[in-house]
Amino acid sequence: MTGTSAPGTPAPGARDLDQPHDLVGIGIGPFNLSLAALAHGVPGGLAATFYEQRPTFHWHPGLLIEGSTLQVPFLADLVTLAAPASPWTFLNYLKSRERLFPFYFAERFHIQRAEYDAYCRWVSDHVPGLHFGHQVDAVRWNPERALFEVDFTQLDTEGQAESLGRAYTRHIALGVGTEPFVPEPLRPLAEAPAVPVLHSADYLSHRDQLLAAEHITVIGSGQSGAEIFLDLLRARPAGAEKIHWLARTEAFAPMEYSKLGLEHFTPDYTHYFHALPESVRDGLVPRQWQLHKGIDADTIAAIHDELYRRTLDGGWPDAVLTPGVHVRTAGRVATTKVELHLEHVQQGTRSRLTTDAVVLATGYRERPLNRILAGLDPYMRRDSSERPRIDDQFRLVLDPSVTGSVYVQNAERHTHGVGAPDLGLAAWRSASILNSLTGKEPYPLPQRTAFTTFGLERREAARLPGQAGEAFTPLVQ
């Protein structure tokens, strides 16, 4: 399936399969969709095409819980923070649906996830050059042609191979996204069908089955775990909730959402983080979990309100919320139950919990690039932990003999910090990539984006006789 052109935009003509593209995007999630939308607006045109294995665009369909909202404002759409006059803004989507006035009166800064998903699907239906049902199998560098070769399989509506193809391109943008993470002790149970042990990514498709279970355990202290716990709690009868909510973190903590805290999701901080030594970056990311793995304060309040409401007639709800706990091992009891072996980190105590269903709100991990990029492995430069090195323009660091660039989206947390998966930086990163790719500046970007200055400015000090080296000059005199 291929995206159609927006109203008033001519459909692109058929291309010779051997004619090289300027850009091939692999994966069509929000980040490469942002790149495709902005590439469509590059003056003079850009020959760009994008491939996605899935038959249509969908954004976390298993977590589009009724009423759940984005944790970033609607301005963090696919394009606005780089090109507010683009035809692909969220506001233009509302205008196309004749919903601008209702949105205006709703006074919503944070839109519902389902609405963000619908907006992205609108963009994917109209931006040209998007090819769904196309699985990319391999990427190679062709030194004779000085081009990348991208092999793909076109899939039918059942997901079966229909035909093979190859595209040539000067540059590539990897946007293959993340995949659900299942902790090792629970993987055998998650792969077995008898008892529902599932990742939060599949929550909605199993919600009825979960509600039919006598006892449910939710594992994970982030936003997804909180929303699922709240949704299950609201659906269970008072006094018979029978829900456990467990987390490794020391508390069910709110996300850092102060104004200056949010400046960690600015281009300024991204530049600062990238310039740090590798060992410092690796130590920083785990300590910054509350910047992106905490819970929205409104969700915490809603959970407390719901629990409190259930005490009005006396007694306490049958719900257990325990942080500071991790699952050591897990096993099946008979054929219909799961036994979790728990350890409390601070107490040093252990216990067992028997439950009928488990929801793993244990987050996502970056998809490994080894399979797709196996053909580029001889050219890739890696860091001390064997991860791909990525420069400040979001390009894989390759051997100089490779004259094309491979850009990455949401695969660079180890080099660019906690903002890598954040929707608020999508448009800026896409614009940065297009500026780098074209060698021009189709999208002028701000020189400063934060009030915080994250590091000291290093300057050459005036040298006195007998002195050498450099010194740090204070930023505030």
How much of the sequence lies in strands comes to: 15-25%
The tally of beta strands, per DSSP, is 19
Helicity, as a percent range: 10-25%
Low-confidence stretches: 1-15, 461-477
The largest sheet is: 7 strands, mixed
Structural shape: globular
Specify the number of helices. Answer: 13
Class per helix and strand makeup = alpha/beta
Distance between the termini: 60 Å
Task: Describe the structure in your own words.
- There is one protein chain.
- The chain is of the alpha/beta class.
- It contains 13 helices and 19 strands.
- Strands 1, 2, 3, 4, 5, 6 and 17 form a seven-stranded mixed β-sheet that branches.
- α1 packs across α13 and α7 packs parallel to α11.
- The protein is globular and about 75 Å long.
- The relative contact order is 0.15.
Provide a quick synopsis of the model:
The chain has 477 residues and is α/β, with parallel strands linked by helices. The chain has helices at 30-39, 90-96, 100-106, 113-126, 187-191, 207-212, 223-235, 267-274, 278-287, 289-292, 297-309, 413-416, 426-438; strands at residues 21-26, 48-52, 130-132, 134-142, 147-155, 161-174, 178-180, 197-199, 216-219, 243-246, 319-322, 325-333, 337-344, 349-355, 357-360, 364-366, 405-408, 458-459, 471-472.
Write the layout of secondary structure elements.
Elements: E1 21-26, H1 30-39, E2 48-52, H2 90-96, H3 100-106, H4 113-126, E3 130-132, E4 134-142, E5 147-155, E6 161-174, E7 178-180, H5 187-191, E8 197-199, H6 207-212, E9 216-219, H7 223-235, E10 243-246, H8 267-274, H9 278-287, H10 289-292, H11 297-309, E11 319-322, E12 325-333, E13 337-344, E14 349-355, E15 357-360, E16 364-366, E17 405-408, H12 413-416, H13 426-438, E18 458-459, E19 471-472
Parallel strand pairs: 1-2, 1-6, 2-3, 6-17, 8-15, 9-10, 9-15, 10-11
Antiparallel strand pairs: 4-5, 5-6, 7-16, 12-13, 13-14, 18-19
Helix pairs in contact: 1-13, 7-11
